[in-house]
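### Sample
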Amino acid sequence: MADLRSLPVPEGLEGERLDAALARLFGFSRTRAAELIASGDVLVDGAAPAKSDRVRGGAWLDVTVPPPPSAPVAVAEPVPGMTVLYEDDDIVVVNKPIGVAAHPSVGWTGPTVIGGLLGAGHRVSTSGAAERQGIVHRLDANTTGAMVVAKSERAYTALKRAFKERTVEKRYHALVQGHMDPLRGTVDAPIDRHPSGDGRWAVVAGGKDSVTHYDTLEAFRSASLLDIRLETGRTHQIRVHMSALRHPCVGDLQYGADPTLAARLGVTRQWLHAVSLAFDHPATGEWVSFTTDYPADLAEALDRVGDDS
């Protein structure tokens, strides 16, 4: 059932854009606020406004919030190209291919890791929200590499704690534009949603603590191959931090990469791969480590950038 919320605009929001004011008042993203305005679910003093209108302190807002969509359900079907690196009674570690999300979400209609595991007959933990059972961490849909999923309830609890307490070692390789200066270092910059509300993330004052360690493995004429260790695990963290340094991941057009270089190297997504994952096994306490090779598209691009140098 839709939720009607009515209230006056606080004086402190005088002069704000309507979409920004709604975002601050109700905790929406600006994108969500703009959608509500466009669909006629927002009235200001009884009239339909534009998202760019400036609000007046004391103006009366009527906002109709539609009910949230029902949680999506994983489709149990095998995912081509997703291989199992290791499995026991507690965990399953996969090498996630390109174009596969960790779990179902609103708006995503492609394959998922959870659906692929279920479709191949694997059991996963029933802990967590229905659409993300067993998921203890995520990779972007177009980021490939090592990912662990909990099969038992004790594994889910232990791994969620390990990721929260930052005792999991997550290493990535990224091909970024240009040359890093210094060649190795740490990016300690908070991340939150991009102010534009367009779905991107950005370095934002007051955002969540985000720490990325990098080391240059090889420098080419137009790009550098980095070994990256994440201390935190924010959404798009590596992509955001590299973009903030003006060295976006090759092919990451969403975060400012050069489309000409991407085309020359044949890259159609961000050059970013989760090469290894290590943690205390949730049942035995033994330190376990899993590594993955580059997929074909990233390996080919790396060969090409080397040939250009």
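The domain at 3-65 is CATH 3.10.290.10 (Structural Genomics Hypothetical 15.5 Kd Protein In mrcA-pckA Intergenic Region; Chain A). This sample (Pseudouridine synthase) is used throughout the tutorial notebook.
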